[in-house]
Amino acid sequence: MNNKLKYILGIVPILFSIQGCYYDIENELYPSDGTACDTTAVTYTATIQPILNQSCLSCHSAASAQGNVVLEGYNLLKVYVDDGSFLGAVSHGSGYSPMPKGGNKLSDCKISQIQTWIASGAPNN
Ligand code: HEC
Q1: Which amino acids bring their CB within 6 angstroms of ligand 1?
Q2: Which residues have C-beta within 8 Å of that of residue 1, sequence separation ≥ 6?
Q3: Which residue in 28, 37, 58, 90 is a FRET match for 105, CA 20 to 30 A apart?
Q4: pLDDT digits (tens, 9 = 90+) for 108-123
């Protein structure tokens, strides 16, 4: 075996392993396995409630009604859906107090899901 051939046989596996690492990272950055934003199956129970639990109810539960706003339970939330302030607040619309107060704006995905739910009539599902 001449030296050139040895060199090629040695370098090929190295190139493959570098490529392998590259693809691993890409999969983490751009997941294609259902963790992308899903606005097709949005429901009050499975989508909206978890967002409220995670980002809003610490200030807007019945026990701690900051700004006199309670978002716990469908009927109370619906009041703020109907007057536009729920979407106005989470999308930082002008004329509304931006929510969650003092925290990071909700992700674009969550805001899209809220918009989808409201556009479909904000069902209690
Ligand atoms: C750290 C406490 C806190 C958190 C977290 C919070 N809010 Fe508020 N929210 C307030 C306070 C206080 C007010 C009263 C207005 C003001 O002071 O800005 C308010 C007001 C509101 C209003 C009325 C806004 C208006 O302009 O009429 C809505 C709707 C609202 N919040 C929705 C939410 C939603 C939805 C979330 C979660 C995404 C959330 N809030 C998270 C404290 C909070």
Answers
A1: 55-56, 58-60, 66-67, 69, 71, 80, 85-86, 89-90, 96-97, 99-103, 106
A2: none
A3: 28
A4: 999 999 999 999 999 9
